[in-house]
Design a protein that fits this description.
The structure holds two protein chains of two kinds. By secondary structure, chain A is mostly beta strands. Chain A has a four-stranded antiparallel sheet, with no helix packed on it. In chain A, strand 17 and strand 18 form a beta hairpin. The longest helix of chain A is centred in the first third of the chain and has 6 residues. In chain A, 55% of the residues are buried. By secondary structure, chain B is of the alpha/beta class. Chain B folds into two domains: 271 residues, Rossmann fold; 118 residues, 3-Layer(aba) Sandwich (Rossmann fold). Chain B is built from eleven helices and 15 strands. In chain B, the strands form four sheets. Chain B has a six-stranded mixed sheet, sandwiched between helices. In chain B, strands 8-7-9-10 form a four-stranded parallel sheet, covered by helices on one side. In chain B, strands 11-14-15 form a three-stranded antiparallel sheet, with helices on one face. In chain B, helix 4 runs parallel beside helix 5, helix 6 crosses helix 7 and helix 10 packs across helix 11. Classes of the chains: A mainly beta, B alpha/beta.
Chain lengths: 329, 442
């Protein structure tokens, strides 16, 4: 059975990187072998990560070390550091790979950095506890979510100006642009919703609710949002609900729920384990065939096959994995 | 911040935010300016014992920005604790409200809303109603207080004709939430029943259902003991015996104190029926902290010492709590207490309701806060909201290992409720003795 699962994965070896908040490491996962092939020690409390479009540099936010380390993904040496207080998450403007937008969570600021010179370009004040951050596909619009003051805040790339502040349900954690750039989807962890915001008018187009039978609504806490490249499906990680919701992007409708918390046979310990607890952040493989979820409470990564929405494997990683990214090659 | 020098001693310790100012240059200086306070000499009567008033002013904002002043009636009193490190700071509670106002303004600057905190410190022997009247005179209608239960009722009754809502951040007494409830009080402090239930759920989950109950002589010790008796009944625990600790400990500063305690407390806990946990109810730190390691039988201690139920602990870092701890430490240069959290919750409830209601009108703020959509994130996993039947803020309760680590968070898994698991803690709607009538004054 295990062999059959291995055969189902892509032939090329993509590498996935999971930041383990509690044990201060990055787990490097070989997606052919479906296992961790390297564990890279980091500074304290690695959470948000960004990868340059060539896949050569991985930027890791080290919240408790007050810096972002830039790792060379071949040698895993630190090629440089950006000193910035309590970075929670950072988003790169692509394809230039510059600048880098950093949520400085303790300071109610976004700081903007040139990652080559590692100089700060500008800083932008936000609400309390900025976290989620995204850059529009055309690179012109920046969105940030402030966890404690419940806003999606929009900024212009060109002028750095604050364009709009949209109130959303409590504790907004994450923002994701649709690939056409016309919408931003914002998850509210305590509100239990995803808010769809128009990027021209900054009006709320829709609020998506989730309901799982047999589960109190308070345990449905949306965090990560990943939208497929064709703008058809959005995957929303529901945290302590131990599920990922699959949402139709055009219809703003929940289609189904994939349980990440389920019994999976573990070959190493030769028994079934309940895995996949509290998925927060996710990443697609570049071919779009698989979605990986970082499960913070069960210390593993679930591999969801997008075609039939099944969890086909679960890979143990470090302690409290927070974010996951996949190399482009 | 030259004004700092004029501030009475107990305000001085919470006056700077070095991490914001130090690291972040210009923008942070603007944020920091929001905390520059003056003693407002004009508000302070000359008598030395008079209540003293401070304001947390917002950053300089454009003229069209609307402003709301929140009142804080601070109980200025000395608290003696067995453990020196838990002696409350003079600004206990108030600093939480101040960080709450700063958080409100960090949001408000984007929504053209501005918040100011007007604090009046009132000594034990002074009349808090006089302070309330001063606040009412300035048009303030939302008032946070950490005064004891009897004062909460007096303030509520004195404020009712003026449309004042009192936020009770300090008093855990169940009576002011039940038979003696008031329609214009929001209780951000958890009740004795909620705290006792939070501990009870954990002890049942641990399968430690046999309790020896020790309680002190103070009237509120008896109330807390009663909450544990109720919790035992609700969750199926058994109180094998209860004992009252009489007299003050008193020997803490003598050379022979430790030896005396080492002899006294085994005797106090001797000859008890078989039990799993010693639960202590000691609201004034008279004896509970002496119990661990000194019991006759080798048993863990919980309640007012040992494993303690609380609305906040400086070690709580989950659910984004690390950010709250960092922000508070940067502001107050000390750890954040449960009272600081209860006051922060009160101020943030006001700020959050104001942002969603898009209004600084106290009536609109309170209407939104009491409505079905209101939720506040407060770093304990599930969001906080108001129980419509008695004004209690429903909230998860941390179980702290004497302030060293967080052991657990209640409600515990497996305790179910038809509406929200948070309502497995404390008095639920079907049991409430509170009969709220709109506009009722007494």
């Amino acid at each position: 059975m295990i062999l059959a699962l291995f055969a189902a994965v892509p032939a090329r070896a993509y590498l996935a990187y999971a930041s383990n908040e509690k044990d201060n490491t990055i787990s490097v996962i070989d997606l052919d072998k479906m296992q961790v092939v390297k564990t890279v020690p980091t500074g304290q409390r690695p959470r948000g990560m960004a990868l340059t479009s060539d896949g050569k540099r991985l930027l890791v936010c080290l919240g408790d070390s007050n810096r972002i380390d830039i790792f060379d993904t071949d040698s895993w040496q630190v090629a440089g550091s950006i000193d910035t207080p309590d970075p929670e998450y950072a988003a790169l403007r692509t394809p230039e790979n510059n600048p880098l937008y950093v949520s400085n969570e303790n300071n109610a600021l976004i700081t903007v950095w040139n990652i080559d010179t590692r100089k700060m370009l500008v800083q932008m004040p936000t609400g309390v506890e900025p976290e989620g951050m995204a850059v529009s596909p055309d690179g012109q619009l920046i969105v940030n979510t402030t966890e404690t003051t419940n806003m999606a805040q929009f900024f212009s790339y060109a002028t750095g100006k604050n364009l709009a502040n949209v109130l959303v349900p409590p504790r907004p954690r994450w923002a994701a642009f649709t690939y056409d750039g016309r919408q931003v989807w914002v998850s509210s962890e305590l509100g239990g919703t995803v808010t769809v915001i128009d990027t021209k008018s900054f009006k709320i187009l829709d609020t998506i609710h989730f309901a799982v039978e047999g589960l109190r609504s308070t345990f449905i806490q949306p965090v990560g949002i990943n939208i497929t490249a064709d703008d058809k499906l959005a995957f929303v990680a529901l945290g302590p609900a131990n599920r990922v919701a699959v949402v139709s992007v055009p219809e703003h409708k929940v289609l189904s729920y994939v349980a990440t918390g389920q019994s999976v046979y573990n070959a190493t310990v030769k028994k079934y384990l309940l895995v996949g607890q509290r998925p927060w952040h996710m990443a697609f493989t570049p071919d779009g065939k698989y979605l990986l979820t970082a499960n913070g409470l069960s210390n593993d990564v679930s591999v969801i096959r997008v075609s039939d929405l099944r969890v086909i494997n679960t890979i143990p990683v470090g302690q409290q994995p927070w974010m996951i990214l996949v190399s482009p090659h | 911040m030259a004004a700092l020098r004029q501030i009475p001693f107990d305000f001085a310790q919470t006056d700077e935010m070095p991490s914001r100012r130090g690291v972040l240059g210009g923008v942070a200086a603007a944020v920091c300016a929001g905390f520059a306070r003056s003693a407002r000499a004009a508000d302070v009567p000359p008598a030395a014992a008079a209540p003293q008033s401070t304001s947390v002013a917002p950053p300089q904002l454009a003229a069209e920005v609307a402003s709301l002043t929140i009142g804080y009636i601070h109980w200025r009193h000395d608290v003696e604790t067995i453990s020196l490190i838990f002696t409350p700071a003079p600004g206990n509670g108030r600093a939480g409200a101040e960080v709450g106002v700063a958080d409100n303004n960090t949001t408000g600057r984007f929504l053209q809303q501005n918040f100011v905190l007007e604090t009046i410190s009132v000594r034990t022997e002074q009349d808090p109603v006089a302070a309330l009247n001063t606040l009412i005179g300035k048009g303030i209608r939302l008032v946070v207080t950490d005064r004891p239960a009897s004062d909460v009722l007096r303030l509520a009754d004195a404020g009712a004709p003026h449309g004042v809502t009192i936020f009770n951040a300090g008093a855990p007494d169940d009576a002011i939430r039940e038979a003696n409830c008031r329609p214009n009080v929001i209780h951000t402090a958890p009740s004795n029943a909620m705290l006792a239930d939070a501990l009870a759920q954990y002890l049942i989950w641990k399968r430690w259902p046999r309790w020896l109950l020790a309680y002190g002589e103070a009237p509120d010790d008896l109330l807390l003991a009663e909450a544990y008796r109720r919790a035992a009944k609700v969750f199926g625990a058994h109180i094998v015996a209860d004992r009252q600790y009489k007299g003050t400990a008193g020997s803490r500063e003598t050379d022979s104190g430790l030896i005396d305690l080492q002899k006294q407390l085994p005797v106090f806990t001797q000859n008890a029926p078989e039990y799993d946990v010693l639960i202590c109810a000691d609201q004034h730190s008279v004896f509970a902290d002496y119990l661990p390691y000194r019991t006759w039988d080798a048993r863990p201690v919980a309640g007012s010492a040992g494993l303690m139920p609380t609305s906040w602990d400086p070690n709580s870092t989950e659910f984004g709590g690390k950010q709250m701890q960092d922000r508070f430490m940067a502001y107050a240069h000390r750890f954040m207490t449960a009272l600081d959290m209860n006051a922060w919750v009160a101020v943030r409830m006001i700020g959050t309701a104001a942002s969603y209601a898009q209004s600084l009108d106290p009536d609109k703020i309170m209407a939104y806060m009491r409505g079905a959509d209101f939720q506040l994130g407060a770093y304990r996993g599930l969001s906080l909201s108001i129980r419509s039947w008695n004004g209690q803020v429903r909230q998860a309760i941390l179980l702290s290992d004497s302030g060293r680590t967080v052991v657990s968070l209640s409600p515990q898994p497996g305790f179910l409720h038809e509406v929200t698991v948070l309502d497995t803690l404390g008095t639920d709607k079907p049991e409430t003795a509170c009969k709220l009538q709109a506009g009722r004054k007494t």
